[in-house]
């Protein structure tokens, strides 16, 4: 077998083992970064999605509060004479009090929306920006480190190739010198020239070897730092960032419930106000008000008196006409002690009577 | 002055006093009925308006519940592979638990709507029908009683007019008889005829008088019953009806608050469920899960070995090619005790690695 092919075979044999371990490490590291990039992006997407969720909840609360407020407003007494009339009755007042409590009730749901906006949505929106920027930094650092070790590797490969080529050339020069040295037909000067050439090549290979050796040492230091310090540190930072994100999400979820829980006692008070208002209704008082409003000063008529036209037959008509008829037409007051429910007498009622009779 | 005019004057004088008292009583009674009709109609209108109010509130609750349910559903995990992936993480599980609690929360507001519908709207709708029918009965009874006393009065007036006319005719017959009796030119037969006529008229007037007297007694009994029993009873029934209506309104208002109050403890439990879910979030566990998911079986590469091509210079290449290069390319395992965070070794990860390298 020619030595040329053997050298070629040696190179193929020497290079792949270190090369494949390096490539596999770089590749797996890259995969890890890609996985973490996907995972952390999913985390950010979740925080954005969660923020959107809270925003939608907040809008539902606002909408609910608005509808409750409108309902309360719609049934409030109209600002006119009727209002005064209505506020006389305990059941009307109770209803209007209920409506006011309902309005406060709506206010509490507005508060949910406000607190969710300020304590969750605004906070998370700011936080997402910070998170995105922090995440970007970590992956940029990762890419930079990967790029750096890749470049170092390429430079090491170059040094190795230089050394290999120099060895081959020194080997070839050595063989040439040995061939010249063994040939009786070659001049001493040519032998000396070949010897010097072999010596020079040997020196060059030796220089390449120390350059390669130095660079190898430097590369191994860098590689150790890369895989044992730099990359683990970046991964750790990403892990810390992820843990802080999860904590933050947990806090927002707690706030979400807390903001809602805070209104419960106030809502309870609004409901108590409604119950109290309803309990303040007095049917007897209200019906007495109706009597007061509609009473007339009128008392039931007494018995109708007998009008005796027969007397005229006994006397001249002129004698009886005015005296008798007037006294007879006076109603008998004796039977009028009992008052009719809606017939009470006082100044107001007399006024009402006169109004009624106009 | 002629007696004709005097009689006429007497009539004008006798009639109005009883007449006006009767008319005023009838009129005022009518006014009372009209006022009460208006007032009770207003009361019924209120109950209808209140029922509409509760219906609108109930619709707002249903709408709110629907929106909350949709929100919960919208953010639930999609039924696919990702769901299983997501449920690995405590923060995902916490969010899904929160969504389920929110769904229950919505259910409580549906319950408000349901209870308002069954306990207030349905009840009041039935009640309004009863109330309308009861009210109609009372005012029909009132109109009937008023009509009856009015008819009795008219009949009494008729009896009185009959008696009055009979008296006038008896008076006229008496005067005619007296004139005939005093006239020397008139035959005894004519005087006798006039006397008999006067006697007949007197008898007729006497009959009318007792008819009038009897009817007057009957009327006065009826009038007393009308104003002291019938009408006050009807008014009392209307008043009772009104008081029951007000009580009923009060009860509905209490139920309105109660139905809402009943859900507060359950809503509180839903919120506690959300808080508990959020408290169950474990950032460390979650990040450990991420490590588990993305770990590869790979360990950081060891130092790259020096490849001494220079040896070839000393020996024949074929001697060194395979033996040295193979042993030299083996990485030094001594420095690999420390594990990189994302580089753990196990079956799963080896599988992942092989997938990554394909």
UniProtKB/TrEMBL annotation, chains A, B:
Q: Specify the F-BAR domain's residue ranges.
A: 17-286
Mind telling me which SUPFAM superfamilies this protein's record contains?
A: BAR/IMD domain-like (SSF103657)
**InterPro entries, alphabetically?**
AH/BAR_dom_sf, F_BAR_dom, FCH_dom
Name a GO molecular-function annotation: lipid binding
Coiled coil residues, start to end: none
Asked whether the UniProt record includes Zinc among its keywords, one would answer: no
- Keyword terms of this UniProt record: Coiled coil, Lipid-binding
State the residue spans of region: Disordered. Answer: 317-336
Q: By its UniProt entry, which PANTHER family does this protein fall under?
A: FCH AND DOUBLE SH3 DOMAINS PROTEIN, FORMIN-BINDING PROTEIN 1
Q: What is this protein called?
A: Formin binding protein 1
Q: What is the lineage of its organism?
A: Eukaryota, Metazoa, Chordata, Craniata, Vertebrata
């Amino acid at each position: 077998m020619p030595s040329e092919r053997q050298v070629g075979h040696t190179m193929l044999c020497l290079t792949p083992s270190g090369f494949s371990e390096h490539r596999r490490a770089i590749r797996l590291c890259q995969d890890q970064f890609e996985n973490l990039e996907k995972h952390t992006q999913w985390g950010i997407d979740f925080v954005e999605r969660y923020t959107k969720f809270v925003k939608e909840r907040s809008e539902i609360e606002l909408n609910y509060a608005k509808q409750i407020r409108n309902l309360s407003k719609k049934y409030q007494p109209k600002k006119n004479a009727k209002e005064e009339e209505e506020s006389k009755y305990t059941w009307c007042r109770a209803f209007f009090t209920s409506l006011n409590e309902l309005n406060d009730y709506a206010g509490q749901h507005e508060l949910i929306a406000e607190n969710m906006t300020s304590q969750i949505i605004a906070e998370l929106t700011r936080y997402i920006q910070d998170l995105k920027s922090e995440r970007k930094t970590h992956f940029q650092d990762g890419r930079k480190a990967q790029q750096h070790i890749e470049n170092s590797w390429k430079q090491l490969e170059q040094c190795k190739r230089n050394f290999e080529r120099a060895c081959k050339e020194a080997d070839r020069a050595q063989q040439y010198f040995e061939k010249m040295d063994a040939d009786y037909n070659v001049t001493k000067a040519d032998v000396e020239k070949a010897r010097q050439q072999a010596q020079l090549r040997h020196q060059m290979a030796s220089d390449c070897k120390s350059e390669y050796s130095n660079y190898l040492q430097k590369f191994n230091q860098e590689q150790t730092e890369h895989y044992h310090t730099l990359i683990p540190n970046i991964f750790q930072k990403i892990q810390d960032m992820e843990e802080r994100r999860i904590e933050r999400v947990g806090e927002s979820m707690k706030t979400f419930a807390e903001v809602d829980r805070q209104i419960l006692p106030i809502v309870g008070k609004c409901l108590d106000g409604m119950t109290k208002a309803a309990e303040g209704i007095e049917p007897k008082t209200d019906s007495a008000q109706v009597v007061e409003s509609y009473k007339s000063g009128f008392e039931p008529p007494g018995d109708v008196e007998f009008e005796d036209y027969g007397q005229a037959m006994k006397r001249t008509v002129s004698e009886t006409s005015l005296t008798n008829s007037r006294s007879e037409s006076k109603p008998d007051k004796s039977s009028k002690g009992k008052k009719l429910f809606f017939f009470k007498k006082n100044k107001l009622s007399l006024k009402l009577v006169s109004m009624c009779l106009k």
